[in-house]
Design brief:
The chain has eleven helices and twelve strands. Helix 9 packs antiparallel against helix 10 and helix 10 runs antiparallel to helix 11. It is globular.
């Protein structure tokens, strides 16, 4: 069965400021498009039917990877995932995470900004329109009920970005440009735990770049999915830390993703690790503390119990990665 795109207007502004002005026009509601690898299939499924698309493809300033004078790494939002995967100057963990996304064909089209702003996912909405009409529209597309948790009053669609947990663990920050100007915020502040309004940026703001600190850290990313390619994560764990010569942890970040509408910082586990060496006992307790935060719903591939069970396993593996670096 073919799934044609709905009719829409298409704009290609030459600047980010121009794109923001188009997004800010209340008379013509518009949706931003980068590579389109997630948005266009959603439009075919009629999950979203924007009347206007504002493309970033003509804005040259949003592409490329640059090392600043102070050693920080800045990546434009329209930089392709393949370019990040192949880069020798971005943090290795980010290149690894980019290489784990989807397939080579998709990574040749999908962008960094698109993955960081990836819409939340759920088995109840990622279905053809006919299926959703038969079952009843959920809260995320204008209905009154979240079919994952019908007695609740919120949407539990999950964040499935692979780059988000990694950039949070690395302590990155993003630059946003909107109709009223620009601002820079820590990447973690971009996300909030709501499956519908899952980001804090305003409707007219555009993520134009991400900057990662130059501080030397150990970092890793572990991804759980059914197949070794194509699939979105059903659990992701990013961990980063700095250690002294004796192996004592000076600071650490542990971020768990794909189990909630936003990536989760395991702050109790982080605090427990700091000041200690990553021995087997320390890793086991840190993994236990991190797993307490994981309460997945039955709305993605594989069941929630399995993903909950695998959370401490993947945190353990990630921390062993740091210990062995």
């Amino acid at each position: 069965m073919t799934m044609p795109l709905p009719v829409f207007e298409y704009h290609t502004p030459a600047t980010a400021e121009g794109a923001a002005q188009l997004l800010a026009d209340p008379q013509h509601p518009a949706t931003l498009i980068g590579g389109g690898t997630d948005l266009l299939p959603a439009m075919k499924r009629r999950q979203v039917t924007p009347a206007t698309l504002v493309s970033l493809s003509a804005i040259d300033s949003l592409r490329g990877i640059q090392i600043e004078d102070d050693g920080r790494c800045t990546i434009g939002a329209s930089t392709l995932l393949r370019e990040v995967e192949d880069s020798t100057v971005v943090p290795q963990v980010l290149a690894t995470a980019a290489g784990l996304i989807a397939s080579p064909q998709i990574r040749n089209t999908a962008t960094v900004g698109g993955n960081l702003c990836l819409d939340t996912r759920c088995n109840y909405i990622d279905m053809p329109d006919l299926w959703r009409q038969a079952s009843g529209h959920c809260m995320k597309e204008g209905g009154e009920v979240c079919w994952v948790a019908p007695k609740g009053n919120r949407c539990w669609a999950v964040s499935s970005s692979d780059l988000a947990p990694v950039t949070i663990a690395l302590g990155g920050e993003v630059r946003l440009i909107g109709a009223l100007g620009e601002r820079t915020i820590p990447i973690g502040d971009l996300y909030q735990s709501d499956g519908i309004t899952f980001q804090t940026k305003t409707a007219d703001e555009i993520l134009v770049s991400i900057t990662l600190p130059a501080d030397p850290t150990r970092a890793t990313y572990r991804k759980l999915r059914r197949r070794g390619a194509i699939d979105f994560p059903i659990l992701g764990v990013a961990a980063a830390g700095r250690f002294d010569a004796d192996g004592t942890c000076l600071w650490a970040r542990v971020v768990i993703s794909a189990v909630a509408p936003a990536p989760i910082r395991a702050t109790e586990a982080e605090d427990f690790i700091v000041g200690r060496r990553l021995t087997g006992e320390v890793i086991e307790e840190a993994a236990r503390l991190a797993a307490v935060l994981v309460r997945p719903q039955d709305n993605t591939d594989m069941g929630s119990r399995y993903r909950k069970w695998m959370a401490p396993v993947f945190v353990t593996r990630a921390l062993h990665d740091l210990e062995e670096m």
